[in-house]
Amino acid sequence: MKYHEPDMNLTNQINAGLNDVRASLIAENFQRAEFEFHAIGWMIKQFHEGTKVPWSARTPAIDEEFS
Q1: Interior/surface letters 23-52, b for 16+ CB within 10 angstroms, e for the rest
Q2: What element of type H or E holds 3?
Q3: What is the DSSP letter of 50?
Q4: Residue 1 predicted with pLDDT over 70
């Protein structure tokens, strides 16, 4: 997964991820919520290292993991 979006707004990407975490918690899918939360942390770390991958590019892998 190698994306570079120089104008990616990290705050918006974190909010998108947290919306998915919230939806998973409401659906009582706690394992998925925890996985998504850790993916947000990984996204932030990558962002600060220079790799800017939007949340929407990460969700297909999360969906596959929990299908």
Answers
A1: ebeeeeeeebbeebbebbeebeeebeeeeb
A2: none
A3: T
A4: no
Residue type, 66: F
How far out from the chain centre does Cα 21 lie? 9
Query: What type of residue sits at position 54?
Result: P
Question: What does the angle CA 37 – CA 43 – CA 46 come to, to the nearest 5 degrees?
Answer: 145
pLDDT at 8 over 90: no
Please give the Cα distance from 9 to 22 (Å, whole number).
Answer: 20
What's the pLDDT tens digit per position in 23-53? 999 999 999 999 999 999 999 999 999 989 9
Cα three-residue angle 41-9-31, rounded to 5 degrees: 30
Q: Write down the pTM of the prediction.
A: 0.87
